[in-house]
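Protocol step 4 of 6.
Sequence for CPBP family intramembrane metalloprotease (Lysinibacillus antri) entered exactly as in the expression construct, tag removed. Do not edit the line below.
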Amino acid sequence: MTIFVYNDVRAKKGAFQMKGIYSVIGKTIVGVLMIFAIILVLSLLDQVLLKEANFGNFISPIGLGLTAGLMVVLFERKNKFDIGWKDRFAVQHVFTGIVMSMIVMTVTMFFMLMTGKVALQEQFFGWNIILFHVFLFLMVATGEEWLLRGYFFGLYQTKIGNKTAIFLNSILFTTIHLFNPESFSRPIEHMLIEMTNIFLISLFLSMTRLFSGSLWMPIAIHFSINFLQSAIFGFANGGKEVESVFHLIYDELTLWNGSGYGLESSFIFTPILVLANGMLFVLYRRKRKKVLEV
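Step 5 output, structure tokens:
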């Protein structure tokens, strides 16, 4: 009798887990299709109604943010998982995220410049352009993190657990970035390095989402890395050249410096991101152990 009851409980648990997996797959597919549909509509509106408005840079982040909002309204009104906006330590988490990004970028640029393959040349850069890039990259970070680390991470975490959520979220983030217009215009070796680095960045962002319990730290990191690499140091962003404080001069185009395709295409960035992920994981484990001992 006990055996039958035990088997029945196991069967029900397995059925519940499978239902969760099917839900995750279905909502992920719907979400990705919705991204493309919304961005297509916004692009058409931009071409027809806003020809002179220079609105194109904002289409993608607005599309991602709208997708996140619609997915919650359509599918999650009764499922109250936490998107990640509420955080009484938001200011502290934003500051921590900015500091971590500055450390990662400083170490990266140090090794980049030490190789002698690149140099920085200061150029004129108005405050109006700086403010534009602050607004643009803040929009990009907010839109992407709201959808990826907010909605999708919350969905995966609720249905299939933390570790799988981090991994699946990073796979999805990397896959979405494959659809950047310039992704397939570069040599395969740079493309592979770029996808590896984007995956590592996403692991880092997903872990900070889990460890901090909110979106504020991932948004701060995402914004800071984009702003520093492109608006300050002059790396291409998403394959596009960006006006910057410094002009990046390449003495030689190599896998080491990304050959002008962007920092994510640089092999020097890979071990630094691996180290950053490892240090974040160790710090979190120590913090968690300390809390448990109190």
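Step 6, annotate. The first strand starts at residue 118 and ends at 122.
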